[in-house]
Design a protein that fits this description.
This protein has 452 residues and is of the alpha/beta class. It has three domains: 147 residues, 3-Layer(aba) Sandwich (Alpha-D-Glucose-1,6-Bisphosphate, Chain A, domain 3); 193 residues, Alpha-D-Glucose-1,6-Bisphosphate, Chain A, domain 3 (3-Layer(aba) Sandwich), CATH 3.40.120.10; 80 residues, TATA-Binding Protein, CATH 3.30.310. It is built from 15 helices and 21 strands. Strands 1, 2, 3, 4, 5, 6, 7 and 8 form an eight-stranded mixed sheet that branches. A five-stranded antiparallel sheet has the order 17-21-20-19-18, covered by helices on one side. It is globular. It binds magnesium ion. Magnesium ion binds next to loops.
Amino acid sequence: MNSLMISPSGVRGIVGKGLTPEVISELASAFGSLRPGKILVGYDTRTSNQMFKYAVFSGLLSVGCHAIDVGICPTPSLQLMVKDTDAKGGIVITGSHNPVEWNALKFIRDDGLFLYPEEGEELIRLYKRGNIPRAGWNKIGKVSFDDQAVAHHLQSILRVVNVNEIRNKKFKVVIDACNGAASVISPVLLEKLGCQVIRLNCKPDGIFPRPPEPVPENLEELSKVVKEHQADIGFAHDADADRLVLVSEQGEPLSEEYTLAIVTRFVLKEKTKGPVVTNICTSQTVEDVVKEFGCQIIRTKVGDIHVSRKMKDCGAVIGGEGNGGVIFPSLNYARDGIVSIALILNYLAAENRTISSICEELPRYYMIKKKIESQGFNFELLKEEVIKRFESEDLDFLDGMKIKLPKGWVHIRPSGTEPVLRLISEAENSEIAGKNLKWALELIERFKGEGK
Ligand code: MG
């Protein structure tokens, strides 16, 4: 099976089954030819990364780029380093939240953001066309080492939170880095913030003891350790630390949707007010929090680049997505699970409260996420049908379709990378969310077999 998926939003695949050093090298040379100069290269801890790292170097050098090996490095650390140096771009080799057999490349612009969709398309066009112009013997690039990205990220985070206030609380914290890239930064950050740190899965060896996606069902061990140690809070990352999910002091894993809601509440209440940006299918909880402070919420298509780009355009004070990815622009327009830790501890310290009491205050909804096969499904016919059945103010086609239903909503979106439909149903309670999801599934069933 060839698992390779190439789209403007990224390139990923299963190691050895489509994702090979040849593909990686070719993509790196395409990227380098579009951004001649210094390119920073970082990676998570996956066992395939040594192999792919040399393929990336090889591709970059062949087009005359200067590759800088920054070592094991979370994606947000590399994004910040690219922004704050004269680098022309960056490449992170990371399968992010995907299972251990997967890997992928993330491409970064010189301002620290991911490639814009049109730039991603240009890169893929060049890769598919082939014949990338290579440097002659006297123009070949070189590799050098610089391990300062993580230290720079740490120092920068300590400048945007109230360190003394946090240190005074002497929090007891469990950190679960899934043996990924966060292992080299989050425990150190917590120590600098005066915490008593209990390290869980913080060995950067790429052997993941749990699925890397930080969602409540994968955080059983973290919950247990938080309870055993009577810790104040537990934090879990994915493999490249752009996401963060919380476990309360009672050992309850909080939905990944709450990370953004909690950080947003802290920023709007204690720091600064202004617009907030999130994607179309992030929980209503975030919207309610934003409205509580009389601020504006702007929704975008799904994908962090859409959120970051809009945040930059409108001067947002906070933003992110419902997968545990928070973007705090005072630091960088990057999803950053590490600065999220500092912001959440700052919230606990500033208000002298527990995480569960902060959480209780949030408007609670019930959300179900589901993925179904979309083979033979015709999205356009479904769209025509819902336009006939609903008032236009109850429909939103910004990305896929969001349908407002009594006491909730459903969102249906064909995946850009796999033949699947992603469904989300959120409502006031589990019964309504389930009923609405069932309704959507029945509707979809009618349009199966009518597609191309
Ligand atoms: Mg990630």
